[in-house]
Amino acid sequence: MSMRIYLAASVAGLSLATAMASPAAAQETTAAVRGTVEAEGAPVTGATVVITHGPSGTTVRTTTGSDGSFSANGLRIGGPFTVTVDASGYETSTITDLNLTAGQAFRLPIVLQASNDIIVTAANLGGALETSTGPITALGRTEIEGAASINRDIRDLARRDPLVTMDLSNSRTIEIAGNNGRLNRFSVDGVQFSDDFGLNNGGLPTSRGPVPFDAIEQFSVKTAPYDVAEGDFQGGAINVVLRSGGNRFRGSGFFTYTDDSLTGDSTRGRAVSLDFDSKQYGGHISGPIVRDRLFFALTYERTEESDPFDNGVGAGFSNQVPGITQAQIDQVSAIAQSVYGYDTLGQIQNATETDEKIVAKLDWNVTDDHRASLTYIRNVGTQQFQQNTFTTAPFALGLFSNGYELSEEVNSGVFQLNSTWSDDLSSELRVSYRDYNRDQTPFGGRGFGQFEVCLDPTSINAGTNTAISCGGSRLFFGPDVSRQSNDLNTENLSVDFTARYEAGDHSFKFMVGYTNVSVFNLFLQRSLGDFYFDSVADLQARNANRLRLGGAVPSLDPNDAAASFGTQNWTIGLQDDWQVNDTLQVTLGVRYDLFNNDAYPPLNPNFVGRYGFSNRETFSGKGVFQPRFGFNWQASDALIVRGGVGIFAGGTPDVFVSNSFSNTGLLTNSIDINRTNCAASNTCAGLNGVTGRTIPGEVGNFLATNVGSLALAPTNAIDPDLDVARKLKASLQADYEADLGALGDGWLFGAQILYDENLRGYTWTDIRSVPGGTLPDGRVRYRALPGVTGTNQDLLMTNSFRGRGIFGSLRVAKEFDFGLSFDASYTRSDVQDEGALTSATAGSLYSNNAFADANFAAYGRSIYEIRDQWKFSVDFRRELFGDNETRISLFGEYRSGRPYSITALDNSSGRLATWGTIGNGGRVLAYIPTLNDPRVSFDTAASEAAFNTLVTQLGLDRFRGSVVPKNSQTSPDFFKIDLHLSQELPVPVLGGAKIRLFADIENVLNLIDSDWGALRQVGFPYTAALARVACLTAATPTGTAGTVSTSTATNCAQYRYSNVLAPNEVLVTRQSLYGIRVGVRFEF
């Protein structure tokens, strides 16, 4: 696989993909050709320039101006194109084999002669080049077909970029230049296809991505684009342009297969037992409807996988749930059917996953001056999940009805019209619509609550038992608590218009855009009830021991708890692409984005009373001014220098706003009644005669009317002074083509530095926690806001003002004339941030970070810093047997491990007794004591010795007497090599048709040696508690029992460390095994 590096006088390199990520816009789906026509050292005025797209016959005509310049915009990507130039008094000049990249302009300096026709390929035309102000990683059809991807996942294409890291342990999320995957923009034919709501860690709306491999004409990754059309992201832009039809009918069909026999069964001495099968099939066909005018392209792909669940009872499950027998499952299921009329569906055996993609595209050459396209994209994916099943204490088994199917459906359409109004004026209009539905459907349907049945034979079963916890194993059936009311729908409508005006050396661009996103997000736990039965006899008697219920108040209609709102975004941009001279192009532009919300969360007077400001803040009225500058300098025939600087904003997941709608402290209430507390609320009768299908009236009335507790209900809010997140990006790159003598010419070398600064970011803090004291190491110890009790939080989304990334890359690429090409890159990263955007909900965003101060995310090394990355690819393509191609493509990456933080665990409940905050007690960075440090004592001398040994082993001695910095540690390095093999075979009876046999092998190293290719890392949220911590009210020597502070109301004179534990580097098992997928393809 080759990577494209743009070099003057080496347009042949345009068939390659860049070795460095570059700023450019995901919205761009067309290309441009610009140039000059000269003769005898002077510009030629009025020359006719005809640009023809070979496959479709699409033709664009223009003429040169008084300065000899010409321009053609809105061209198809790919090619090949032919450019012919005619002028009175001169012979025709023809340039062939021109291939174009989306979002890029190709510059052609053409010199006419009076006596001879000139025919030259673009690769041999001196001074011809694409005028990118930044490098881009771009893959065409040839590169895509050679990519090893067992899942046929477009993210496998993105990870070839040197600034991209794919997190194989986290839904294959793509991190670009040290940024969370939620901050990327992914688009298909100009339509935003990111998971813009932000629930999917992988960054895409469905688990496998929305488009088939066979539908992609060109794929690109861009990091810091300086064109004003590029926006709505802070990480990077991933752009897919779909294939179009031409004048020739083309088609293909494929089938692939893999199963556990084609997958590794051991890694680093650990045997892995798998039992699954997966098949994929699909096809592509394209061609003319009306030759030279109307074309179609249609692509289909389907994946079907079956993967048994590992955990269960009896034969067929590799991991047994202790304390449960099949007889007990049968007994409980029989009672559920006979007493409640409900089918538990028994045990869940197999998870089936399906994914179906359809892409249809029409291209219409309305006239030579107007070209339209219409695209339809549909993707439906399903996954199945087991719930409430634990093979470690406390043991539990969720039956089939307690599991659910996650289905995600995307339907999208885009219309685009490219028009040339004159030699100087052209325009592009795009209208797109996308509908996204995400549903989590219980296997047994809704209309029944969750039942939890204790199987402990010693449990009291008289129906009056006050116990609400089980000493034995448990069975669950009915929809689990998080699936009872759970639905998400978003609709996106976008209209974008761009006009370009050519004025000699200046090409002016004006753009305006509008996007409307409608969001309906319903997530209400326990809306159908969560019933606990302390024995099977209680289940038989319909006597629950506990009922937890959540609902919208006062209506009890779950839909009234949904976040329903719309967001609007207006964009305007102006840009001047200035050809200063024959070797220097400068881009100057400015973009402005204005945001609005058409609804607001309801006002919570209790919140206002606590803090003096409203909880109704949204992004309405907030805007971002984004100036851009870029340049491209052809320093010599072999050297190009390019770079730029600009501000980039947008791409904020809508869930960050939705949190304020879903957690108002007003719209929902919850109750927890049992046989001890029910008398006070007159709800005891609701625990008897349970049906599972209805909520007793007295319970519902109590939920609707007992709203006094809402005065202290948790609330999410946005800081009234919040600014929209934005980043400053700057890059400088040099590309050089060298002749190395005996080693050949055409060696491409490049170097780049990228700077990424966080001007405004987002972070979350609990404003209900306020400073209340000092910890032994001098840090703040928190307590509840005066007058506020309980363990709830008020989480505020506010700005962070620190963070930056510095990236340096080196690369080399070479194509040989015997079919071999290779490239390699090395990237060094240094990334600092203040709170990583690890999650979607405010509670998770607050808790799942490393903190120095217990209420504010720490600043320091980012979990997204992959310090060193080596990437390389080798591609061999040659016809070894007649005219049948043999292909061997290899891609490898060796990278540093993911950083993680050393913390101390406060495992107290409620408001943490040591830190004084609420939530994850293991997120606060550890204080590393000096020897005999009075600030810390240990429960035993053995604990102290073990702690000191670990400190030395982990290299933490340098931090003694201080708090260890964030992400001071690094998980082990990771090395992975993937291989694609294919062989063409002729089909003589069908003329030029071919059959291609192929195999994709991922993680070849594990195939060679089971100890190789292993992915090990400290898992999410990338913290490791070195010891358990408590506060002692008075300093006490190690090994001596002290008085532990049980709340922040008592003094914290000394830390007490215990339960010393080394960091657990988890082996990511499935991603550490090799996998082979074999397939066959028919092409004509």
TrEMBL record:
GO cellular component: cell outer membrane
Protein known as: TonB-dependent receptor
Keywords, sorted A to Z: Cell outer membrane, Membrane, Receptor, Signal, Transmembrane, Transmembrane beta strand, Transport
Domain of life of the organism encoding this protein: Bacteria
Protein species of origin: Sphingomonas lacunae
Record domain TonB-dependent transporter Oar-like beta-barrel: where: 241-1006
A Pfam entry, by short name: CarboxypepD_reg
Protein's membrane topology: Multi-pass membrane protein
GO molecular function list: siderophore uptake transmembrane transporter activity
Gene3D superfamilies given in the database record: Carboxypeptidase-like, regulatory domain, TonB-dependent receptor, beta-barrel domain, TonB-dependent receptor, plug domain
Compartment(s) of residence: Cell outer membrane
The UniProt record lists the keyword Transmembrane: yes
First and last residue of the signal peptide: 1-26
Keyword Signal carried by entry: yes
Gene Ontology terms describing biological process: siderophore transmembrane transport
